[in-house]
Amino acid sequence: GYLDDFFVQIEDLASNDNPYFVEEIFTLFFRDNETLLPNIQQEMEKSPVDFVGLNRILHQLKGTSSSIGATKVKAKTNETVAHCKEENLESAKASFQELKGELECLKEKLGRYFQMLRQAGPDDKAMPPQ
């Protein structure tokens, strides 16, 4: 699947006081990627490519995708990192394109999920009489 147990753990942290906690976490994740992805692209276009710098940026993405449970994104990031370690730029670029596709797919799926959650509303809790 797209998400692992880390996602469930994040969901468990949501409460009625902040029912949109998970959505906020993922909004931050995708916002961070708006700067990371262009930075990765720029590093790949440098001549010569700074594979150490590229790996540093990719590890940021790997860390954030791992911490939120984005399994397919993490797998494509690992694949891109592996190609960078081999200094295989063409394969790294191809994996990076697939990585961007996985991010878009995840964003789309989560968008629908969060929309359904908003429509359902937070769980109503019975309050004891005062």
TrEMBL record:
<keyword id="KW-0902">Two-component regulatory system</keyword>
<dbReference type="InterPro" id="IPR045871">
    <property type="entry name" value="AHP1-5/YPD1"/>
</dbReference>
<feature type="domain" description="HPt">
    <location>
        <begin position="18"/>
        <end position="120"/>
    </location>
</feature>
<dbReference type="GO" id="GO:0005829">
    <property type="term" value="C:cytosol"/>
</dbReference>
<keyword id="KW-0932">Cytokinin signaling pathway</keyword>
<dbReference type="InterPro" id="IPR008207">
    <property type="entry name" value="Sig_transdc_His_kin_Hpt_dom"/>
</dbReference>
<dbReference type="GO" id="GO:0009927">
    <property type="term" value="F:histidine phosphotransfer kinase activity"/>
</dbReference>
<feature type="modified residue" description="Phosphohistidine">
    <location>
        <position position="59"/>
    </location>
</feature>
<comment type="function">
    <text>Functions as a two-component phosphorelay mediators between cytokinin sensor histidine kinases and response regulators (B-type ARRs). Plays an important role in propagating cytokinin signal transduction.</text>
</comment>
<keyword id="KW-0175">Coiled coil</keyword>
<dbReference type="GO" id="GO:0000160">
    <property type="term" value="P:phosphorelay signal transduction system"/>
</dbReference>
<dbReference type="InterPro" id="IPR036641">
    <property type="entry name" value="HPT_dom_sf"/>
</dbReference>
<keyword id="KW-0597">Phosphoprotein</keyword>
<dbReference type="GO" id="GO:0005634">
    <property type="term" value="C:nucleus"/>
</dbReference>
<dbReference type="GO" id="GO:0009736">
    <property type="term" value="P:cytokinin-activated signaling pathway"/>
</dbReference>
<feature type="coiled-coil region">
    <location>
        <begin position="82"/>
        <end position="109"/>
    </location>
</feature>
<dbReference type="Pfam" id="PF01627">
    <property type="entry name" value="Hpt"/>
</dbReference>
<dbReference type="GO" id="GO:0043424">
    <property type="term" value="F:protein histidine kinase binding"/>
</dbReference>
<protein>
    <recommendedName>
        <fullName>Histidine-containing phosphotransfer protein</fullName>
    </recommendedName>
</protein>
